[in-house]
Write a structure and sequence with these properties.
The chain has ten helices and 20 strands. The chain has helices at residues 6-26, 31-42, 45-57, 60-64, 96-113, 121-129, 267-270, 285-293, 305-308, 322-330; strands at residues 132-134, 141-144, 150-153, 158-163, 168-174, 176-180, 189-192, 196-200, 204-211, 214-221, 223-228, 242-247, 250-255, 258-259, 263-264, 277-280, 299-302, 315-318, 335-341, 344-349. Helix 1 (6-26) crosses helix 3 (45-57) and helix 1 (6-26) packs across helix 6. The longest helix has 21 residues, at 6-26. The radius of gyration is 24 Å and the shape is globular.
């Protein structure tokens, strides 16, 4: 993950910590959810700090003076040393791994024992623990799951997820998403669509449903296995059904009519849509219009096929701003623009 995204990840960690906070104080975690909570807490010191920040905000950290506590005389292996507010947890290298296990379990026990009524608790619970995401036209979203995986979701997308002890399942009903998968060899990460499935353990890849019968899988890092449905089944777990294994900078297209050969691509560019921007490098106007129309309520249509054959200039545009794209084309002497209504812009020959 790039360093530039650290601030966003910190924000996501804070949101996730707030969700765990609500569940813990409400004391409504099932045994399986408690195991997921402990696994989340053990992932890194940043998770611990994020959760303690929530407790400090509600006054628990100030009452306990966790940010000012000096090293006690008790067994140091059962203590989490904290510096002044906002500083990183300090480690002694010789006891690092052993201390980490002990201190995280101690924090988990303390946090799990806290219970009080929060007025907005159920609202926060619905916000942070919903297992579905839906975006509308021109809407991008981002989410961090309980295992640490990050989802970048494009417009007009519907997906849901369910994790258990043996697998992590994402059902992508429509739209597109990029999945930055946290490693967990014991629980494969499976994205299933009506066309086929993608299985990974720890990698980064994107899945785009171009329509009800075509899916595009692109791998940015690592390796994934792709399988295709031959009937009405939704999930393929048996690896004998794999049609291909993809590695970095490879892409495959699945459709009702068959599977296209794996091809080499520039994955960073293929998945650039997840940033909300797209860099055109000489594609045709028709190809550009397809990029915008898939993701926006405002549609661009052509009155003359010749307009679609025009080569786009080398430029970067915002994918949620088709009007700027159209105005750029209108600067050409051979294209004019007409606003038919609030949802249609028509390109006409001059």
């Amino acid at each position: 993950m790039e360093q530039g995204s650290e601030t966003e990840i910190d924000a996501l960690l804070s949101e996730q910590a707030a969700g765990w906070f609500v569940r813990l104080v409400a004391n409504d975690l099932s045994p399986r959810e408690r195991r997921e909570y402990l696994a989340w807490l053990k992932t890194s010191d940043r998770h611990v700090e994020a959760l303690l920040d929530i407790y400090r905000y509600h006054g628990y950290g100030r009452k306990a003076k966790l940010h000012m506590r000096s090293a006690p005389d008790t067994d140091p292996e059962n203590v989490i040393p904290f510096g002044p507010r906002g500083l990183t947890v300090v480690h002694q290298q010789a006891l690092r791994m052993k201390r980490r296990r002990a201190r995280l379990m101690k924090v988990a026990a303390v946090v799990a024992g806290v219970a009080f009524t929060v007025v907005a608790g159920w609202t926060l619970k619905a916000m942070y623990f919903d297992t579905r995401i839906a975006t509308g036209p021109g809407q991008w979203d981002r989410a961090m799951l309980s295992d640490g995986s990050v989802l970048r979701i494009g417009p007009n997308t519907r997906l849901r997820w369910a994790f258990d002890d043996s697998r992590r399942m994402i059902v992508l009903s429509e739209g597109e998403a990029v999945f930055e998968v946290a490693k967990d060899p014991k629980r494969p990460f499976i994205v299933t669509t009506q066309i086929g499935d993608v299985r990974a353990v720890g990698t980064e890849f994107g899945v785009s449903l171009m329509n009800a019968s075509t899916a595009v899988v692109t791998v940015a890092h690592g390796k994934v296995a792709v399988s295709k449905h031959n009937d009405a089944r939704i999930v393929t777990i048996d690896r004998s059904g794999d049609v291909a294994e993809l590695v970095e900078d490879q892409q495959i297209v699945l459709s009702d009519s068959g599977v296209q050969p794996v091809k080499q691509v520039d994955a960073s560019r293929e998945l650039q849509w997840a940033t909300g921007y797209y860099e055109f490098r000489g594609e045709t106007v028709r190809e550009a219009i397809e990029q915008f129309n898939r993701r926006n309520r405002l549609k661009v249509v052509m009155s003359d096929p010749a307009i679609g054959a025009i080569a786009m200039p080398f430029t970067t545009v915002k994918l949620d701003d088709p009007e700027t794209f159209v105005l750029m084309l209108a600067a050409r002497p051979d294209v004019q623009v007409a606003y038919e209504n609030a949802s249609v812009i028509r390109l006409l020959p001059e």
